[in-house]
């Protein structure tokens, strides 16, 4: 769930002001600069023992004006391809010294394969993994799906029931949103997510009511961005450590962070 920057959190028993996502602020800046991004720390208050979660991680966020879902998917693919190409050319010696690094040469070519959320559920059912429609994917289900791919792949059309209120509902199928997650092969899980954002005030208010956020005064300024002029825009978010873990084939995302903030570690320092 996206939160306003510097939201007061109960973080392992302490009241602290931390950010879980800078997206709302980027959405205000995108109207002036059209393409904006931020790379900074984000904090996760929900405890997880999975191999791809930390209490603190470096978060790449970007927003692009006048971009729809197709545009942001293409942008994300270009970004990943550029990262891979740069690693292969600039860090060739370093990569050669490491064992088991992902074969980059076969990953720079885009576009990556796509399947819809509904297609993913059907494929999982064939493999004996039952996921109820409208529920989030688990690490297990992502690992099973990834067996069918040798490159990252997209899962598109995520259910509106589990996606945050700023995301556009697909008019061709109101059950889903104009969103997509990029999943790494070989069970390394989600690398990044993209979404087309709601820019019309009436549509945003409807979704806020649906999620029970319309009476929350903390979101007033976010709604006002639509009231006084907005444009179509889309965004992406990626955890840096997840990308590093995948490229270096590390067992746990904590191995991609010099001083990992594990769950239940106090907020300070």
Which SSEs are present, and which pair or pack?
Blueprint: E1 7-11, E2 14-18, H1 23-33, E3 35-43, E4 56-65, H2 69-90, H3 92-96, E5 114-116, H4 117-126, H5 139-146, E6 153-156, E7 179-184, E8 189-197, H6 201-210, H7 220-227, E9 233-239, H8 240-248
Parallel strand pairs: 5-6
Antiparallel strand pairs: 1-2, 3-4, 4-9, 6-7, 7-8, 8-9
Pick out its properties.
269 residues, BirA Bifunctional Protein, domain 2, 8 helices
What this model shows, in words?
- It is a single chain.
- The chain has helices at residues 23-33, 69-90, 92-96, 117-126, 139-146, 201-210, 220-227, 240-248; strands spanning 7-11, 14-18, 35-43, 56-65, 114-116, 153-156, 179-184, 189-197, 233-239.
- By secondary structure, it is of the alpha+beta class.
- It has one domain (21-256): Bira Bifunctional Protein, Domain 2 (BirA Bifunctional Protein, domain 2).
- The strands form 2 sheets. Strands 3-4-9-8-7-6-5 form a 7-stranded mixed sheet, with helices on both faces. A two-stranded antiparallel ribbon has the order 1-2.
- A hairpin with a 2-residue loop joins strand 1 and strand 2.
- Mean pLDDT is 89; it is low at 1-8.
């Amino acid at each position: 769930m996206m939160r306003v920057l510097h939201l007061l959190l109960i973080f392992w028993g302490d009241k602290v002001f931390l950010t879980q996502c800078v997206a709302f602020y980027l959405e205000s800046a995108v109207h002036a600069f059209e393409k904006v991004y931020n790379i900074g720390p984000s904090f996760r208050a929900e405890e997880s023992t999975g191999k791809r979660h930390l209490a603190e991680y470096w978060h790449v966020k970007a927003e692009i004006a006048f971009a729809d879902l197709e545009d942001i998917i293409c942008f994300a693919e270009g970004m990943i391809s550029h990262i891979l190409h740069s690693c292969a050319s600039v860090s060739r010696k370093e990569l050669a010294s490491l064992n088991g690094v992902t074969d980059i040469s076969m990953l720079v070519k885009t576009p990556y394969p796509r399947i819809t959320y509904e297609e993913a559920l059907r494929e999982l059912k064939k493999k004996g993994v039952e996921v109820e429609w409208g529920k989030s994917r688990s690490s297990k289900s992502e690992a099973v799906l990834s067996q069918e791919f040798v490159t990252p792949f997209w899962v598109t059309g995520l259910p509106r029931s589990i996606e945050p209120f700023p995301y556009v509902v697909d008019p061709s199928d109101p059950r889903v949103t104009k969103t997509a997650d990029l999943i790494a092969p070989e069970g390394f899980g989600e690398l990044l997510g993209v979404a087309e954002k709601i820019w019309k005030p009436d549509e945003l208010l409807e979704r806020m009511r649906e999620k029970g956020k319309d009476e929350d005064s903390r979101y007033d300024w976010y709604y006002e961005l639509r009231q006084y002029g907005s444009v179509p825009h889309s965004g992406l978010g990626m955890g840096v450590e997840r990308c590093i873990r995948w490229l270096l084939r590390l067992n746990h995302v904590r191995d991609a962070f010099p001083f990992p903030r594990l769950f239940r570690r106090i907020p300070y320092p």
